[in-house]
Design a protein that fits this description.
The complex is a heterodimer. Chain A is an all-alpha fold. Chain A contains 9 helices and 2 strands. Chain A has helices at about 20-30, 45-65, 80-90, 90-105, 105-110, 130, 135-145, 180-190, 200-210, and strands at about 150, 155. In chain A, helix 4 packs across helix 8, helix 7 packs across helix 9 (about 200-210) and helix 8 (about 180-190) crosses helix 9. Chain A is elongated. The termini of chain A are far apart. The model of chain A is unreliable at about 1-5 (pLDDT under 50). Chain B has 19 helices and no strands. The model of chain B is unreliable at about 1-10 (pLDDT under 50). The chains are: A mainly alpha, B mainly alpha. At the A-B interface, helix 1 and helix 2 of A face helix 8, helix 10, helix 11, helix 15 and helix 16 of B.
Chain lengths: ~230, ~500
Amino acid sequence: MSEIPSDFDPRLEPAGASDESIQRVHAGLLHTKPEPEPGGYELTPLLLLGFMSGLILACCIFFVHNRGGFDSLVYNGQLNGAGVVSADLTPAQIIARGKSLYGQTCIQCHQPTGLGVPGSYPPLAGSDIVQGDPERLIRIILDGLKDPIMLNGNQFVTPNKMPAFAPGMPGGLYNWSDAKISYVLTYIRQDFANKADPITADQVSAVHAKIADRKVEWTMKELPTTP
Amino acid sequence: MSDAHSQTSPGEAGPIHTSLKVPLLVLLAFALLHLLAASALGLIAAIQLHTPGFFAGCEYVTFGRVYPAAINELAYGWGVNAGLAVALWLTARLARGTVPQGGLLVVAIVFWNLGVKLGVLGILAGDSTTFAWLEMPRYVGPFLLIAYTLIAAWVVAVQCRGVARWLYASQWYVLASLFWFPWLWSAAQLMLVFAPVRGTVQAVVAAWFAHNFLSLWFASLGLALVYYFLPKVLGRPIRGYYLSSMAFWLFAIFTTWAGAARLAGAPVPAWTQTAGRAANFMLLVPLAIFAVNFFGTLRAGGLRALRHSIVLRFMAVAAVVFTLWMLRGVVGALPGLTELTGLTWFNTAGDYAVVYGMFSMAAFGAVYYLAPRLLRRAWPSAILIKAHFWFATTGLVLGVVALSCGGIFVQGIGLANAKVPMAEINTGMVFWLHLATFAGILLTLGHLAFFVNFFKLVLCPRHRSAAAAAPVPAVLLRPSPELQAPAR
């Protein structure tokens, strides 16, 4: 160590600032945003805010499109979750999904018991329409049903109409897939002491294709009457 | 004389450095020995990839064992030792606290290194757990956790004994990563080794651990160093510093999720993969802030400073590699590209980039700055320092580019095409793997230069008697300049 290194010697680099001053100056900087020129504005925070908001929006859209229905069995979010799943669901899973869908929507009028409200909302339990011809039932849920409703000899005047669940129906807000519709129909045909065959997504799709052009609700007179 | 400095420049060579000297030198010496061992093991593994007959007769150094052994030497031997060393040094300087009971700390450090050595030998003996970055055998897991906790507790104690009034950004990252590592390690050990979770959940935990070990430990310590050395060397404040606390929280929150993107294409629920990809995209926000902080400061400091300061050059490489690594995460998470990059060397190259190009480069720079201040003498050779920098940088760029290019253009495109036979892909990779071996040789030469310089500095055999009498370099005696707040 004969010679003493000067500045810019990589063997011993000088400090450009003391630790204490680094901390003091930055502690001040942490809470002071740069002040804009008079009449101007600081661009960086604005750009950053815009960038962050855009990114959050984009990530949310991306997430919703690729979430795979939050299903533990869907590995590829880009495939249509419902189509992949329906082929593999067990009857118990179908009933569980149908029950969940029922609890989110139908339950408001048709009640947890499936008994409806006398005079206003028709019962599902023991209903001829629910347990009868699948096509008639599918048509009602796809396009909705107008008053008056006759069921098992009773007449109902509904304060809120039976809505349409098919995508693209005027006034229909649900946009349910055929698979979803098949789950809930299977559920109402097999709970509330009802005992009818399940309805598959293919059955729903077949009826859906047949009445794709119809954009108004059904009336009782139009529907096929035979059970 | 030491009293005199403690008054003039307490941070530069005062009592803080006296109390740091022994524990830091022990940590750094172990780190360097492990780095050399990792280089040797890594070279064997790299050669075996294109010349499978190399050491094929010896069971202990077959690829399946020597590769994880090299990775673990690098991560736990070099990485954690060097990481704890810079954490201890930064904390002592920035909190201005002394190290209590340095002797006991050395015992804890020796225990950590015994554990790592035992673990690596265990891997070579065939006891690996098979999870990437977590191959350390079952029997060293708790041992390492206890040794680590002891050392980390010491760093926290130094912080608590400190008298500084302010916390600087580097301290956020240092203190957080000290706590993050035991969380990651204990959770992963528990869920993968001691009470293994079932089925694909293991893959999820393993990906979570691997990614967060790299980002919450290695990258955040690297960030601490870059945040410290830019103003320290340049003498000007970090640009856009008021954004840095937001970057810290966003980085911490999103990076914990980003690991799930490693599972793209694996049989894990789609929403998990999607959440991982989205977290990678969201990391663009903290990355933008880091870029303003680092490159804004570097640009304002003038590129001339880069010519003069080797420390700054190491930090600049670390900042550039970190930026590219984060962008790589975003690109790798884009749907469509993941299918190309998955299961290729492209992903491995990214892991090397952050451990070597981000953390290690920053740590090298820090050691070049701190060691003369510990020992109160300059490095013996400037040429060896420059050689280390250029070998490390060229080796890094060459290795990462070789593995990334081979990974995408040979493996990625080849594996995606059902008509290309597997053997053809493997033959196509040979050229790139040769390049990677060459890069490994360059890195090893750099490490040797570092090693020789370090041990000459510490042991100083030719001037042992003269060293005590030699004058302390003037750079250490004069007080450091005051940092000026930017003009309004």
